Amino acid sequence: MKIQMLGTGSAFAKTFNNNNALLKIDGLTLLVDCGITAPKALHELGYNFNDLDAILLTHMHADHIGGLEELAFQMKFIYKRKPILYLADTLVAPLWENSLRGGLQQEENETLEDFFEVRPLSEGQAQEILPGLKLELIATRHIPNKPNYSLLFNDFFYYSGDTTFDPDLLDSLVNSRGVRVIFHDCQLHAPGVVHTCLPQLLTLPIAIQQHVFLMHYGDDQPDFIGHTGQMTFIEQHRIYDLDDLTIPEKGL
Ligand SMILES: O=c1ccn([C@@H]2O[C@@H]3COP(=O)(O)O[C@H]3[C@H]2O)c(=O)[nH]1
Ligand SMILES: [Zn+2]
Ligand SMILES: [Zn+2]
To answer: Which part of the chain is the Metallo-beta-lactamase domain (predicted)?
Structure first.
């Protein structure tokens, strides 16, 4: 299984694209989140929307769903097929009613299902979403009272999405569930009110930090290279083999 980040930036970053990913397994491609910058980022990497085998969403912010209107229109009018859309059951109604309906709906009775093959997921119930790719949604805290999810793929790869700091969850993932690779959002400056901030991540035990790769960071990320403990910044557009991601040895 390989991953290529379309972007590794925070919602307000301008030198990095939105934090969206391509997960590739056995020739199939899953788009994880589709933010405002995703259409252009896909194009720049040589992809079109028809190259995607499915789309998976973590939550409703524009840096994670803002590219879906263009994707839906291109799939309908250019490629003439409905893309598979995985999302938590709690997100289905808000995605249509509070976000996409305003732009996509042209006939009064049109719904999300007219544009996507919608596949709702239940939190905590792992299922195979593409051949060889198992996903479990883990509910995490981001914005109070709004549904938000982290992703656990094939029992070993944890993708935090946007989340506040949850060291107990990270401990249980690594020490009880055998997670080997953690892609974690990383707001570079404290306080981490709706995100996890770097000073919080630096309090993790070294044995956990060694599994952590940092994403969703701000434009001043270059200032922090070498100041992330045992954790490593993920670079956008670089392809990482998740089955063989060496844990970097760093001096303490
Ligand atoms: O209560 C709030 C809600 C939002 N925000 C900002 O808006 C951004 C929306 O996208 P994001 O979730 O990647 O990051 C969020 C933050 O940068 C915030 O600072 N406090
Ligand atoms: Zn975000
Ligand atoms: Zn968010």
So the answer is: 17-216
Report ipTM (2 d.p.): 0.99
Residue at 107: amino acid letter = E
Both structure tokens of 184: 């974690």
Q: How far apart are CA 44 and CA 194, in angstroms?
A: 30
What is the number of other CB atoms lying within 10 angstroms of the CB of residue 179? 19
Residue nearest ligand 1's atom 10 by CA = 11
Q: What is the mean pLDDT of residues 137-141?
A: 98
Please state the domain count of the chain.
Answer: 1
Give the CATH number of the domain where residue 109 resides: 3.60.15.10
CA nearest 10: which of 226, 215, 223, 227? 215
For residue 64, report the distance from its CA to the centre of ligand 2, in Å: 6
Identify the domain containing residue 229 by its residue range: 2-241
pTM above 0.95, yes or no: yes
